[in-house]
Amino acid sequence: MDLRKTKTAFATVFALxxxxxxxxxxxxxxxxxxxxxxxxxxFALGILLEGKLYYLDLSQPILNLPFLASAxxxxxxxxARSWGYGGGNLQNQSFDYGTTFVVVAGLLNLLxxxxxxxxxxxxxx
Length: 125
Description:
125 residues, mainly alpha, 66% helix, elongated
């Protein structure tokens, strides 16, 4: 495997593990900071608004889509789940907003991951 393919693989995997890390690997530190700040802010606001972090549940397949979306934030999702956050409080008026923020943060990280991939293969600068 040549160096370019290795760099592409690392940038893509690191972008999925932590928001902005793929761009940091590629030397785009300003983009990395901007993406990391915006995605982590969305995720943190979602947790503070007591949004729900979905988990993999094979008995309810429709809930696997929001799980994939929210889990796409990578390490922040794993840390929040392991620390007991994201249970969701249906009685809280901001529950829906919080859940939406968490899901959107994950989807945004998927777009950022695709952007890091495009930069690493030379389709974008």
